[in-house]
Specification:
- One of its GO terms (molecular function) is ATP binding.
- This protein folds into three domains: 95 residues, MurE/MurF, N-terminal domain (Udp-n-acetylmuramoylalanyl-d-glutamate--2,6- Diaminopimelate Ligase, Chain: A, domain 1), CATH 3.40.1390.10; 240 residues, UDP-N-acetylmuramoyl-L-alanine:D-glutamate ligase (3-Layer(aba) Sandwich), CATH 3.40.1190; 146 residues, Mur ligase, C-terminal domain (Protein-Tyrosine Phosphatase, Chain A), CATH 3.90.190.
- 32% of the residues lie in helices and 24% in strands.
- The strands form five sheets. It has an eleven-stranded mixed beta sheet with strand order 11-10-9-12-8-13-14-15-16-17-20, with helices on both faces. It has a six-stranded mixed beta sheet with strand order 21-22-26-23-24-25, sandwiched between helices. A five-stranded mixed beta sheet has the order 2-7-6-5-4.
- The chain is globular.
Amino acid sequence: MFYRPLPESKGFTLDELINDLSIKEVTNFQDWTIKNITDNSVKVEDASLFVAIKGFNVDGHQYIKQAIENGAVAIIGESQVQIDKNTTYIRVENSRKALAKLINRIYNYPSRKLRLIGVTGTVGKTTTTSMIDHITGQIVGKSSLIGTLYTKIDQDYFANPNKCTTPDIISLNNIFSEIKNREIDYVSMEVSSHALKLDRVFGLDYDIAVFTNLSYDHLEFHESIDDYLYSKKKLFTSLSEDKLAVFNLDNAYSKVLMEDIKASYYTYAIKNKDADIIAKDIKLTKRELTFDIHIQNQLINNYGKIIQPTSLSINLPLLGYHNIYNALAAFTATILLGFPINKIKEALESFKGIRRRMEVIYDQEFTIIDDYAHNPASLTANFKTIENFDYNKLIILHFLKGKRGIKANKINAYLMVKWADKLKTKKIITSLCEEEVIEKNQVLKEEELAFTKIIKDSGLEIINTNKLAEGINRALKYVENNDLLLLVGGPGLDKAAEIISKRIT
């Protein structure tokens, strides 16, 4: 693994590091030579600068004493604190932004030396960034990706630190530096609302920012849907005038995100015919998607080159109406990066999809589809896809939304009930996946009870299981010839395909 605390150097003076921070007060200033910067007191070593950050569960200011004992010579924080006379304390307006500024500067702003494409939205981030990565890699030979599933640098794959969709600012700068060291220019990156709200991506230099959609999700973290929306908006307000933004015009929230941004922007859509780029003549089967892309208006790419209106046909070996939106987003972003249309088409049509995104893992006497769907938007996309399939009955194996609240699980339950008749749902099997999930994703009893009650009250049959293996056994017991087994849910089901392959092959 290439992650390092800081780039190798002889150190930086404290004065040169803090000269562009929004400082309120400085206590016991000494111009220390700083050799390490961290917001984790455990990682403090001699000559460190410790940044105290107020988290939702932990306040970093409580660890200042430990940081000093471990070797910190200077502290940055937001609160007024009593400090040892031999330690410098710098009180700032925002510790998170201060950390981002410091790290970006120490690494010499590597994101400015890359072609960085940021993608945000409730659903579609993973597939869209993967499509962009595939297109850029196919055309130029090497590419990189940072997202939910992994960090990819050329052909090397790494687990993301802290299992976050978007890593912290120190990890990101490490990754960007490694990408640049390997002479790779293009980075496709998922940008989560959590990272935006918490300023984990503050100061990064995006060439293009893409918005896929926004719907109800993550309200256990955000105070409201407005807070969720305006966290997303941070990505687009960070763009300078010479950058570009891409919006899904079929999503009503796009209009809010377009307001008051400096960057030029272009739109894509299926339903809204006013978009710059639209999809028409759509055909969906169990094997592929075919549609035509129409560039309706003149576009100007990142290099100032004019792209004239034109049309082309696309044939994708993927499932799902929603993947047309993902393809439109990826197509729009890459054409704005300056790639030839014919090369984009060729690369896009060779994209085989990604793991756990409407992935057909078995298709013989019955069919099994595995998807990460865990919120109303992604579940609806799944249901709209499979309603066009020919099968006898549907069995659902579902991992609940652990520690995301009763309301979120109730909404998912009501959605499954709403679609039950149309999809010929026979049974819903839930699994807590106790042997698979980490603590933050463990399902609470009240979440399971809330979901179960709604399903039972509707008259649908529901079976609750604790272990993933038990849930799979039940599902395979009930699925019959020409049935469809749909696996839906977050990380608890990540090993389901592997377990199933051992049971039925």
